[in-house]
Amino acid sequence: MSTWRRAALAMLIGLCPATAAPAFDALSPSLPTNYSPPDGDTEGGLWMASRQAEEEIAHSPRRIADAALETYLRDILCRLAPEYCSQIRVYVVRTPYFNASMMPNGAMQVWSGLLIRMRDEAQLAAVLGHEIGHFLRRHSLERARDLETKTSLLTLFTLGLGGAVAAGGVAPAVAQGASGGAQLAALGSLFAFSRDHEAQADKYGVQLMAKAGYDPAQAAAVWRNLVDEQNASGEKQDGSSYFFATHPDPASRLETLGGYARELGGQQTIDAGQAHARYFAAVGAHLPGFFADELHLSQPGRSEHLFKQLLDAKFAPGVVNYCLGEVSRKRDGGKLSDAALAYYQAALGYPDAPPEAHRAIGLWKLKAKQLDEARQHFTAYLEQAPQAGDRDMIDYYLGLTEKAP
Ligand SMILES: [Zn+2]
Predict the structure, then answer these.
(1) Do 226 and 263 fall within a single domain?
(2) Does 161 lie in the same domain as 138?
(3) What percent of the chain has pLDDT above 70?
(4) Residue 16 falls inside a structural domain
(5) The domain containing residue 238 runs over which residues?
(6) Rg (CA), the chain
(7) How close is the Cα of 271 to the center of ligand 1, in Å?
(8) Are both 176 and 309 inside the same structural domain?
């Protein structure tokens, strides 16, 4: 056999294992079950700080008093990490930004802005799985130890520089600038998990959700939605957004998550219909309030994208169409455009349409001098919202509709 043939054969043999399906290299927890650290050490200190923070969240006026919703979230976490169920507590906080975080002691907070960005329970499981990944791998502890090292380095550096100033007569302003810059850089790296930790939490999260029977492809879908929303907002991904500042590059992350999903697929026991129905049953009652918070942020590009996605996902279509009308109206400086009207009218095609859709259409019709229709809509609004705070104003408008044309 010629040398090149032997080489070719060896290469082929060498390539064989790579052509087989890649085995998923599963991660395991570093946190012992039913564990609590001794009081004196670094981890004990972290837990003490966590207990104080948890106490504050538990009594915060922004905590959503819905025990059923918190139990629903906790049940998902328990499905993801059954051995740690007794160590986990969940708090839902009304804040209109995308965030969830888990403290080292097992207390998790989930923000309402995250809940309106989930399409179903599988996507929620992906996010909760990521957070529980940080918890089970004790990333906070690793970060704290890293912080201790950095702090001592920083102290040495600052002292050293101070010494140089005294001895060599370096201009104090320059010295202060240098140490200030180093301090900022050190501080910036302290508050976020490292990209390695994020990548590990992603991997662990997908692993846990797949094992619990969810469609692992939904992990990538969550980040895809966020990237699309960010692009629709017209804002740059330059760190002004909390989310993109603290998480790995979205494009490579999506690719990695997609790869994990392909390796871990085939264990799904919760289908898309169930995942949607269960999620909507748990959060549906809160959606109008959460949507109102989103509208108050006055970020039409972002909101429009979000609400259109919710419409596609058949989430509370009456309320969502109404919100799209509101976004359109806000974008036009309060003017009721034909586009806004179309959304308000679409809202009325659904049983969950808010009474305010009638008010908005009434105003449009009044302006267009279509007085009969204006009267019908104002009347319907007051019938459906008898306690409306703007009743006097609507009565006044009703008077206008009665004038002879
Ligand atoms: Zn993370």
Answers:
(1) yes
(2) yes
(3) 80
(4) no
(5) 24-270
(6) 27
(7) 26
(8) no
In this predicted structure, what is the pLDDT of residue 289?
A: 95
Instruction: Note whether 310 and 191 are same-domain residues.
Output: no
Q: How far apart are the CA of 131 and the centre of ligand 1, in A?
A: 6
Is 356 a residue whose pLDDT tops 90?
yes
Confidence (pLDDT) at 3: 54
Residues 231 and 324 in one domain: no
Distance CA 319, CA 355 (A): 10
Q: How far is the CA of 346 from the centre of ligand 1 (A)?
A: 39
Total domain count, the chain: 2
305: CA distance to ligand 1 center in Å? 24
Q: Are residues 170 and 135 in the same domain?
A: yes
Model confidence at 244: pLDDT above 70: no
Q: How far is the CA of 111 from the centre of ligand 1 (A)?
A: 15
Distance 161 CA to ligand 1 centre (A): 35
**One domain for residues 264 and 173:** yes
Q: Do the domain assignments include residue 18?
A: no
Structural domain contains residue 139: yes
Tell me, what's the pLDDT at 144? 84
Please give the average per-residue pLDDT across 95-106, as a whole number.
92
Q: Is 34 left (phi over 0), alpha (psi -120 to 50) or beta?
A: left
CA 297 to chain CA mean position, Å:
16
Rounded to the nearest whole angstrom, what is the distance from the C-alpha of residue 124 to the centroid of ligand 1? 14
Tell me the average pLDDT across 339-353.
96
Q: How confident is the model at residue 246 (pLDDT cuts 50, 70, 90)?
A: low
Q: How far apart are CA 135 and CA 83, in angstroms?
A: 13
Spacing, Cα 231 to ligand 1 middle (Å): 21
Separation of 298 CA from ligand 1 center, angstroms? 27
- Residue of higher predicted confidence among 335 and 6: 335
Instruction: Report d(CA 245, CA 38) in Å as an integer.
Output: 34
Q: What is the DSSP letter of 32?
A: P
Within a domain: residue 218? Answer: yes
For Cα atoms 193, 194, 195, give the angle at the middle one, nearest 5 degrees. 120
pLDDT grade, residue 359 (50/70/90)? very high
